[in-house]
Specification:
Helix content: 55-70%
Structural class: mainly alpha
CATH architecture: Orthogonal Bundle
Order of helices and strands: HHHHHHEEHHHHHHHHHHH
CATH class: Mainly Alpha
Oligomer: single chain
CATH topology: Farnesyl Diphosphate Synthase
CATH superfamily: Farnesyl Diphosphate Synthase
Number of domains: 1
Largest sheet: 2 strands, antiparallel
Strand content: under 5%
Length: 346
Amino acid sequence: MTASHSALRTPAGASAGAAPTGPADAFPRAAAVPAPDAGRVLARCRALVRPALREAVGRTHPWVAEMAGYSLGWCEVGGTPAAGSGGKGVRQALAVLGAEAVGAPGRSAVPAAVAVELVHVFSLLHDDVMDGDETRRRRPTVWKAYGTGPAVLAGDALFALAVETLAATQEGPRAVRLLSAALRDLVHGQADDLLFAARPWTGPDRVRPHAYRTTAERKTGALLGCAAALGALLGGAPDPAVRALDRAGRELGVAFQIVDDVLGIWGDPAVTGKPVHGDLRERKKTFPVLAALDSPAGGAVRALLESDAEPGRVAALIEEAGGRSAALTEARRRVRAARAALAELP
């Protein structure tokens, strides 16, 4: 087992059941990187990928490149350089670590890392438009800053760049097929997520936790699994290793999404960059809410959700009904499943 591969295993003394406490450490813990080292791992991967990512973005129309740079935290509206946050880079890190997990140098996965980061940004641009979200990472979203049409156009351009980047690799056809399959699942998951909003809180047509889990695996897990799998593929791994890393990433994606749901209700806005109780104000059908609705207190939870009750009161009842603990339990279960998939690597 290589040193890089061992970084994906549970370290001595770590708790195999530890749940991620936020999106920032959902990936490192699932990959069994000690929490204090998580930031360094992500920073190393971002530094490796950044030059190629900037080069790829620079190949598109200058206005589109500016919008992409704004989304990535590189610039302000108008193109003035900025030192803002472009996110943690979890997906690009998974691609790099996927290559290292199969004994290949991380640099072999750079095209994969660039492609999945471009797809991630593309999905955020479109997702913000569909959800009507006006802020992301404490700044106006791209559609709010530039307009809806330009934001959609920028997303389309980044998707094209992602495909172009993968197609130019030695494993181009297989890599593009992997990405296409992930995008099919991502679109399926996003469609289900949009339809969930119109479904009732109770009755036979209500959204159940198992349906949520399937949607989360598609909407969030598909791209995380694809990232790790593409890294392994470009690193020369055999198909079983590629599939194992895809499974690990998908399981991780569900944990990642559930933790994000927890933060959407109980997270600190100073850390998350999102309004407190934001998901409850929008009455989103997130995992903690669905789990609470399935509890003996489900009737009381439903009544509050259907009323104009203050979100803090709703959050307290959801926690009392076990929604928060159920969410963290499910996140831990998915982390264990991700580790089990990693254990299949040679």
